[in-house]
Amino acid sequence: MTTITPNIIAEHGLTAEEYQRVLDILGRAPNLTELGIFSVMWSEHCSYKSSKKWLKTLPTSAPWVIQGPGENAGVIDIGDDLTAVFKMESHNHPSFIEPYQGAATGVGGILRDVFTMGARPVANLNALRFGAPDHPKTRHLISGVVAGIGGYGNCVGVPTVGGEVNFHPDYNGNILVNAMTVGIAPADRIFYSKASGVGNPVVYVGSKTGRDGIHGATMASAEFNADSEEKRPTVQVGDPFTEKLLIEACLELMATDVIVAIQDMGAAGLTSSSFEMASKGGLGVELTLDRVPMREEGMTPYELMLSESQERMLMVLEPGKEPVAEAIFRKWGLDFAVIGHLTDTGRMVLTWNGETVADLPIDPLAEAAPEYDRPWEPTPPAPVVDAADVPEVPWTEALPALMGSPDLASRRWIWEQYDHMVMGDTVQRPGGDAAVVRIHGSERGLAMTTDCTPRYVRADPVMGGRQAVAEAWRNLTAAGARPLAVTDNMNFGNPEKPLIMGQFVGACQGLAEACRALDFPVVSGNVSLYNETEGRAIPPTPTIGGVGVIDDLDRMATVTFKAPGEAIVVIGERPDTRESGWLGQSLYLRELCGREEGAPPPVDLEHERHVGDVVRGLIQAGRVSACHDVSDGGLLVAVAEMALAGDMGAALTLAAPSAAALFGEDQGRYVVTVPAEGVTGLLAELGTLARHIGDTGGTGPDAAITLGGAEVALSDLRAAHEGWLPGVMGA
Amino acid sequence: MKARVHVTLKPGVLDPQGKAIANALHSLGFDGVKEARQGKVIDLDLDDTDAEAARARVDDMCRQLLANTVIETYRIEVDP
Amino acid sequence: MKSAVIVFPGSNCDRDVAVSLEQTTGRPPVMHWHADPALPEDLDLVVVPGGFSYGDYLRCGAMAAHAAAMTGVRKAAERGVAVLGICNGFQVLCETGLLPGALMRNRDLRFLCKDVHLRVETTDTLFTGHYAPGQVIRIPIAHHDGNYVADLATQCALEDEDRVVFRYCDPAGKVTEDANPNGSLDNIAGILSEERTVLGLMPHPERLADPRLGGTDGRPLFASLLEALS
C-alpha cells in the first residue's frame, strides 16, 4: 500500500488545504485510488472551481431551453417535436502535444457528449487558434490538427460544416482546438445522467479500458516503475470506427425503453461518469472493477478509475433488461459488461479481487468541491484610436493585402479536408456566415456558427465578450435564421493571476449582457484555464458557438452575389460614425500599419438587436437576394467576400472613402443585395439605417470591384485570398 | 510463435507517401536519399508450433486479406 | 426496381444513397446487414455505399470485401444483377475482384471533399443512359484513397471495351492533369466490369441529386437505373 506523501498529494494537483478537506471528509487518510478520485473530481476540469462563481451569472433560460448547463450538452426546442442538442469543448493541450490525435479525440469527445443525450449528431464545427504562420511549429500543428479533425469526423460520418481559424503569435506555445457538435433528438426521447432505482445495473459499453491519458504527474508514485511508465501512453488515441458503432448502438438502444441514465466517460473516465450519475440521483454506487473490460494485463484499480480511454459509455439500465442491451451492443461488435449496481448508501464503493479498494461518500465529496473567488483586476481601458492618426493606404492596395492576410484568407485548404456533405443535408457549405444543415426529412434548417475576436477581448474583455456573442447572433441572422442559444468555450490563461482572472470576469460580464439583450441564452459550455507557456498567456478567447433555426429553407440567405444590376445596401450604420469608422483593433490597423492597439469597436446591444431583427425580417420576406455580416476587415472586405462567392464584380459609389470608412470594424452592420425593383421602397422604409453603396455587375475575367475611378480585379483578389493558406502549407 | 508480415507497394507502383517522405528527408538536408518506399508491418502471434506450417498459413492470410496483390507485395518472417 | 444497400459497420453514406434511391424510384431499398450472406430475392440492383467500412483500418475496403454479404453480392453479380459501388463501395468492389485495379492514397496525401467535374465517357451502360455522351457533370468527391491504378493490360482493356464511364475533367470538359483531383490513372473516376453490369466510381452522385443541396447532376444516374431495370 502506497503511503500518501506530500509529494504525491502535490502531484495530484491538490493543495494542502484541499487535502485537509479530504481527511475531514473521510476521517482517515485516503489510499492512492481514493486520492486519485479526489484529484480528478476536484480538478479544474470537473469542478470549475475558479470559474463557477462567474459562470453562474450567465443567463441560461428561455422558453425554448429544455436543458441548460450541467448535463452532457444543452438542449433546445426547435419545433416539430424536435430538439437541438449541442456543446463545444476544448482539447487544447493534447492537440499541442500530438496534433492529430489531440484534435481527433477532441472531436470524439464532443460527439459523445451529444449522442449521450439521445441525439444523432448532424454537424461538427471547429474553432482553431494557431500561432504565427511563420513560427516553426505552426505548419506542423495546422496539418496535424486538420488531418485529425477530418480523420475522425469523416470516418464517423458526421459532416464538419464550419468553424473559424485565427493566427496570433501569442498562441505559439498554446494552440486552441475547440470542437462543437450539434445533434438532433426527438423531444420525448432525451436522455439524462441522473441515476435512479436502487439495485439497477450499471453497465459499461464501448471500447476496452487501457492506460490512456493517465497523467504524467501521477506516474511518480511508488507503485510505478520505469517499466510501467513505458507502457502507459499519455496521449489518447482516437478510434472513430468504434465511435461510429457506439453511435449506432446507443441510438438503437435508445429507441427501446431500457435506459434509465447514461453518461459518457469523458476526461475523467469511469470516476466522473459513475460519480456524477450517482450524485445527481442522490444514490450510491458499487462497482466490481474486475468486470471492467481491459485492454492490457496487470491494470490496477487506480488506473481503471483514472484512464481516459476513448469511446466508452456508462449506463444504468432498467432491471432485467441487460439482455436487450447486450444483444444490441454485441451486434455492433462492442464490449458490454455489467460492472455494478446502484445502492442507497450514498457512497461509491469499489471492489477488486473481492476486496474494497475505495469507499467514499458521494455528496460530501461533491459538496466540498473547492470553489474559489479568485482576486481579479479589470483590464485597463485602451485609448480610442483616432482615425486621423492612422496612415491612409490606397484601397486598391489595402483590399488585396487584407483578403490575403492570415485572419481573412480563405480556409478552403482546411475545409476541403473535412467531409462537409455526408448525411446529405448540408445546404450551406463552409465559407459563408453560418453553416446550414437541413433538418432531415423537412424543409427547415439549423444554422450554426462559432465566433470570437480574441484581439477585441484582450483590449476590452467586456466589450470583446459582448462582441463574440453579437457576432454569432449576427452570423445566424445573416443566414436568415432565428438565433436560439449558445454554447461557450472559455479559453484563458492562469486564473491565479488577477489580470487573467479579470479577463475572465470581464468576458463573462460581456457575454451575459449580450446573451440577455439578444435572448440568446447559454445552454452548455466548457472552461479551459492555464493556457500559458513560459508565463505568457494566450489572448483571452471565449469562443461562442451559436445555433438558430430557419423555418423555411426557401427563405435562407447566402453571401453570394446572385445577379448583376442589383443594389448593394449596407444596413445598420449609425449616422454619426458612417464617415469616420472605427479603426482601433481593426485588421487594417494590424495588417497594414503594424499596430495591434486601441479600444475595440463598441457593441451597442440595443442597436444590434434592432438591426438584426430588421435584416432577418427582410430575408424572411424574400426582399434581399444575398446577405453578409460586416466583421473582420470592415465594409469593403464584406463586399469583396460576396463578390468572390458569386464570381461577380461590384461598382461602388461611395464618395471620397477613407480607410476608416472602408475598413473600420464598426459593429452591427450587414451588407445585402436588393433586386432593382425593390431598392427604392426598401431605402425609403429604412431611412438612415440603410445606405445604397453601389451595384453588382461584371462577370468572367473582367469582373472587378470599382470605386472612385480605381479598380481591383476579382481574379487578383481571388489569387490573394485563395493563395495564402496553400502557400503557407506548401501545397 | 510470432510472425511478422511486411507489406509494401510493388516496385513500379507510384508511392505518394514514399515520395513525400523522400521530399521531407531532402528538405532536412539528407541529400543521399534516392528513393523512399513505405509500407506496413503486421505482427501476428500464432498458436502454430511448426514454422513451415505457420509460414504457409500466413502466406494464405496475405493473399486473402493482408495485402492487395494488385498493387502490393509482401514478405513474411517467422520467428520460432 | 428492387434495390438493396449493403450496410457494413462503418458505412456512412448508406442512408444518403437510400434517400436518393427512394426519391428517384419511389421505393425504399432494403438495407442489408453485412453479416447476412443471403441477399433478398429478385433484386435488380445492389449498392455498396460510401463510408469507412471496418474503419478502413487495414486498407480501404479490404475487410468489407470478406464480409458475408459480399458472397451474396458476388453471386448476384454473376447472375447479372446490377451492382453500384460508390466511393468506399468502389474500393470494396476492387478488393473483391468484381472490378479490376485498385484505389491508392490521393496524390497529395490529403482527404479531399469538393465538387469536381466529370465527363460522361459512355452512355452505353445501365447507369448512364440518361446522360448525353460527353456531357460534363458536377458531382462531389470525398475520399482519401481515390487514386485509381491498374496495370497496362487492364488499362488497355478498359479503353478498348469502352469501360471507363467517368473521367475527371475541367468545367469545359477537357481532361487535364489540373482537373485530376487525386492522381488517378488517365483521370479515371468510374469504371465498369467486363459484363458492364458492375459500376464503381469515387464521386458521390447521391450528394448532388437534390436541388436543395446545390445541384442535381447525380440524379440521372439513378433515373437511368430505374429505366434500365424496371
UniProtKB/TrEMBL annotation, chain A:
Residues 70-185, 431-550 form the PurM-like N-terminal domain. This is Phosphoribosylformylglycinamidine synthase subunit PurL. The active site is at residues 45, 91. ATP binds at residues 48, 87, 488, 525. It catalyses: N(2)-formyl-N(1)-(5-phospho-beta-D-ribosyl)glycinamide + L-glutamine + ATP + H2O = 2-formamido-N(1)-(5-O-phospho-beta-D-ribosyl)acetamidine + L-glutamate + ADP + phosphate + H(+). Mg(2+) 1 binds at residues 89, 526. Residues 198-352, 564-697 form the PurM-like C-terminal domain. Pathway: Purine metabolism; IMP biosynthesis via de novo pathway; 5-amino-1-(5-phospho-D-ribosyl)imidazole from N(2)-formyl-N(1)-(5-phospho-D-ribosyl)glycinamide: step 1/2. Substrate binds at residues 90-93, 112, 236, 308-310, 528. One of its GO terms (cellular component) is cytoplasm. Mg(2+) 2 binds at residues 113, 264. It is an enzyme of class 6 (ligase). It comes from Rhodospira trueperi. Keywords: ATP-binding, Cytoplasm, Ligase, Magnesium, Metal-binding, Nucleotide-binding, Purine biosynthesis. Belongs to the FGAMS family. Part of the phosphoribosylformylglycinamidine synthase complex involved in the purines biosynthetic pathway. Catalyzes the ATP-dependent conversion of formylglycinamide ribonucleotide (FGAR) and glutamine to yield formylglycinamidine ribonucleotide (FGAM) and glutamate. The FGAM synthase complex is composed of three subunits. PurQ produces an ammonia molecule by converting glutamine to glutamate. PurL transfers the ammonia molecule to FGAR to form FGAM in an ATP-dependent manner. Residues 10-49 form the Phosphoribosylformylglycinamidine synthase linker domain. Monomer. Part of the FGAM synthase complex composed of 1 PurL, 1 PurQ and 2 PurS subunits. It is found in: Cytoplasm. One of its GO terms (molecular function) is ATP binding.
Automatic annotation (TrEMBL), chain B:
It comes from the Bacteria. The keyword Phosphoprotein does not apply. It catalyses: N(2)-formyl-N(1)-(5-phospho-beta-D-ribosyl)glycinamide + L-glutamine + ATP + H2O = 2-formamido-N(1)-(5-O-phospho-beta-D-ribosyl)acetamidine + L-glutamate + ADP + phosphate + H(+). SUPFAM superfamilies: PurS-like (SSF82697). GO terms for cellular component: cytoplasm. Pfam families: PurS (PF02700). GO terms for biological process: 'de novo' IMP biosynthetic process. It is found in: Cytoplasm. Keywords: ATP-binding, Cytoplasm, Ligase, Nucleotide-binding, Purine biosynthesis. Transmembrane segments: none annotated. One of its GO terms (molecular function) is phosphoribosylformylglycinamidine synthase activity. Its main location: cytoplasm. Gene3D superfamilies: Phosphoribosylformylglycinamidine synthase subunit PurS. Its EC number is 6.3.5.3. The keyword Metal-binding does not apply. Pathway: Purine metabolism; IMP biosynthesis via de novo pathway; 5-amino-1-(5-phospho-D-ribosyl)imidazole from N(2)-formyl-N(1)-(5-phospho-D-ribosyl)glycinamide: step 1/2. Part of the FGAM synthase complex composed of 1 PurL, 1 PurQ and 2 PurS subunits. PANTHER family: PHOSPHORIBOSYLFORMYLGLYCINAMIDINE SYNTHASE SUBUNIT PURS (PTHR34696). Belongs to the PurS family. Part of the phosphoribosylformylglycinamidine synthase complex involved in the purines biosynthetic pathway. Catalyzes the ATP-dependent conversion of formylglycinamide ribonucleotide (FGAR) and glutamine to yield formylglycinamidine ribonucleotide (FGAM) and glutamate. The FGAM synthase complex is composed of three subunits. PurQ produces an ammonia molecule by converting glutamine to glutamate. PurL transfers the ammonia molecule to FGAR to form FGAM in an ATP-dependent manner. This is Phosphoribosylformylglycinamidine synthase subunit PurS.
TrEMBL record, chain C:
GO terms for molecular function: ATP binding; glutaminase activity; phosphoribosylformylglycinamidine synthase activity. It holds the Pfam family GATase_5. It comes from the Bacteria. The active site is at 87 (nucleophile), 204, 206. Pathway: Purine metabolism; IMP biosynthesis via de novo pathway; 5-amino-1-(5-phospho-D-ribosyl)imidazole from N(2)-formyl-N(1)-(5-phospho-D-ribosyl)glycinamide: step 1/2. Its main location: cytoplasm. GO terms for cellular component: cytoplasm. Signal peptide: none annotated. It catalyses: L-glutamine + H2O = L-glutamate + NH4(+); N(2)-formyl-N(1)-(5-phospho-beta-D-ribosyl)glycinamide + L-glutamine + ATP + H2O = 2-formamido-N(1)-(5-O-phospho-beta-D-ribosyl)acetamidine + L-glutamate + ADP + phosphate + H(+). It is found in: Cytoplasm. One of its GO terms (biological process) is 'de novo' IMP biosynthetic process. InterPro entries: Class_I_gatase-like, PRibForGlyAmidine_synth_PurQ. Its EC number is 6.3.5.3, 3.5.1.2. Keywords: ATP-binding, Cytoplasm, Glutamine amidotransferase, Hydrolase, Ligase, Nucleotide-binding, Purine biosynthesis. CDD domains: GATase1_FGAR_AT (cd01740). PANTHER family: PHOSPHORIBOSYLFORMYLGLYCINAMIDINE SYNTHASE SUBUNIT PURQ. Part of the phosphoribosylformylglycinamidine synthase complex involved in the purines biosynthetic pathway. Catalyzes the ATP-dependent conversion of formylglycinamide ribonucleotide (FGAR) and glutamine to yield formylglycinamidine ribonucleotide (FGAM) and glutamate. The FGAM synthase complex is composed of three subunits. PurQ produces an ammonia molecule by converting glutamine to glutamate. PurL transfers the ammonia molecule to FGAR to form FGAM in an ATP-dependent manner. Part of the FGAM synthase complex composed of 1 PurL, 1 PurQ and 2 PurS subunits. HAMAP family: PurQ. This is Phosphoribosylformylglycinamidine synthase subunit PurQ.
